[in-house]
Amino acid sequence: MSEGLPPESVPAEDLRTTEVDLGGLVNVLATHLYSTPLVALRELVQNAHDSHTRRLLEDPDGDHRPLIRVRADGARRTVAIEDTGAGLTEPEIHAYLATVGTGYTRMLRELTGSQELIGAFGLGFLSAFSVADEVTVTTTSHREPGAGHRYRSRGGEQYSVEPAAARPGGGTVVELALKTEHGHLADEDALREVLGRYCVLLPIPVFVGDDEQPVNAVPVPWRQAVGGDPYAARMRFAAAFGRRFEPLTAFPVTPVEGGAKGGGSDAVGLLWVQDGATYGSSDNRDLAVYLRGMLLAEDARDLLPSWAGFVGGVVESNRLTPTASREDLQRDEHYRALQRQLTDAVVEGLYETARLRPAVWRRILARHGQDLLGAALCDDRLFTLLADDVPVPTSQGDLTAGALRAAGGGAVHVALGSGGGFEEMLYRAMQVPIARGDRYAVLPFLRRYAQLRGCRIVELGSESGNRELFRDPERPLPAEESAWLAGALADPGEQLVPARFDPPGLPLVLVPDREAELKARIEDDQADARIPSAALRLARAFTARTDGEVKARLYLNLSCPAVQDLLTAYRAGHTGSATAAGLLRSIKVVMAAASAGGSGGDLTTALAGIGTAVSALTAAVPAGLDAVPDSPDGLDGLHGLDGLDGPGGRGAGA
Ligand SMILES: Nc1ncnc2c1ncn2[C@@H]1O[C@H](COP(=O)(O)OP(=O)(O)OP(=O)(O)O)[C@@H](O)[C@H]1O
Fold first, then answer.
1. Mind listing the pLDDT tens digit for each residue in 533-542?
2. 344 CA to middle of ligand 1, Å?
3. CA-CA distances (angstroms) from residue 435 to 470, 561, 629?
């Protein structure tokens, strides 16, 4: 059935003609083709614009002054679109305005090759019926200046044409008697806002009401040579257009030579970085696309790279193909070429900002750091630009990867969990900043950074990260000493692990076993209520393999002078060793409490002070003296001392 030919096998007398229910069709087109009633305004302004172009083409030497004026009458609930364009003769009204699917505009474009004309489908006028109960078109053709005609229709299916007073100078007024539900459109302030966006690139001035300033008065920076600083002109345009966010900077989109397949694109325009903090992957991309000066797609965000959640802009291109509703674009090769062009424009714009406007660049980094971390992972050029500049959230506030590395002694430290573990506390004690690996893009960014810059990355919470932290002792402790230490320091469920770690001032650290924690949570009776049963069965099958006996590992720092003194005292049979061990056990408990509530105070100083106390205590008691009390004054109040004298005291004699 292609090209309207009947199938050859069917005899001509059996062929029937398809009936068209015009009323139904008009209703569908008018009600369902467009996503918002505002589209009707756009279509009618566009027709007015085309009519001016037509007049200029047909009468290039005339003294015609192009102008479009849109008026609203709230009391009468009407909106009228006036133009001083070509107008229509009566036969043209029947042939073009009142014939669905046929317009004069397309024919004129094909005839003249004019790129100025916008209309193509012969459908746009129908949209008037989506907002209006009745549409009246009063028109005078510039070719028949004395004859006026009035077209009237309710619903678009049937219409009448009657003589009317000729419009002086020629042109057309389309008046919409709005449906009740669209009555709010009869408001000139609302019209200024909508038309300011729709018509910003139209070359013909568009006025609202009796305004003397057209809504499209802001100079378009890529069109005309605007006087003064071009950057200031770009910023003015961006500020006028980007209603939701102030622009931080603006950069141009310039055409790329060549055909679409080779990456060529005719698009020109402006992109800007929006103010307004974006968090994580929040997407505030905002791109308006214009075709021959008319807004075609208001939210064409997919043309911008997905990582550019902070970018807004306006582009115009004559190569893009609109859909029939002219609210969206065909995803063709020109569309894809424009996507590539815009990605390059954002990257180049950011480079230019970093180079030429360092203060603005700092604001962008501070405002959009999170998004930029992700962006750097998506585009190698951006990684190069941002690797050393972009702020990474850490336990000591935002730091660049370079600063993180320098403070970490050449390694970048990143916590895998949401933070607060003992591993993390250990690094805090060493004043090493830890990047927040639970935040958007932080971990992959740092992995990439470490790989490309050839530096170490320590991932806290992973097995390798913990191994990095807790090194094996130079010599294993004798089993008997280990047993004494375990008895003196570890609580039930804690496994003592002799190790070496930094800082040397820290005698011991308790690291909860994450799997045991999970097991406890899953085996809790309450879990049935929280977790779907299938998932729970799976999870329990998994945690059944974890014995759950070891709830935490207690790493004892054999590099710590206090621990070394303790062991020396124990080996020498020093009775104070039990007291000293009790002090260490107390420290463990205090640290556990501090860690649960977040770290407070100067931990390093506190730890050093306790270490000194232990050393002093053990040194003050001469070796071999059994008569020293197990709980000397000042230590009674320490948590965890009860019952600790046994192993130490007995061990001392062994
Ligand atoms: N204000 C006007 N002045 C003069 N002619 C007009 C005006 N409005 C509409 N017309 C005529 O009516 C025809 C049909 O208009 P309509 O808006 O339905 O389609 P179009 O503009 O040709 O194409 P599209 O559907 O792409 O907008 C136009 O081609 C034009 O010839």
1. 555 565 555 5
2. 37
3. 20, 30, 47
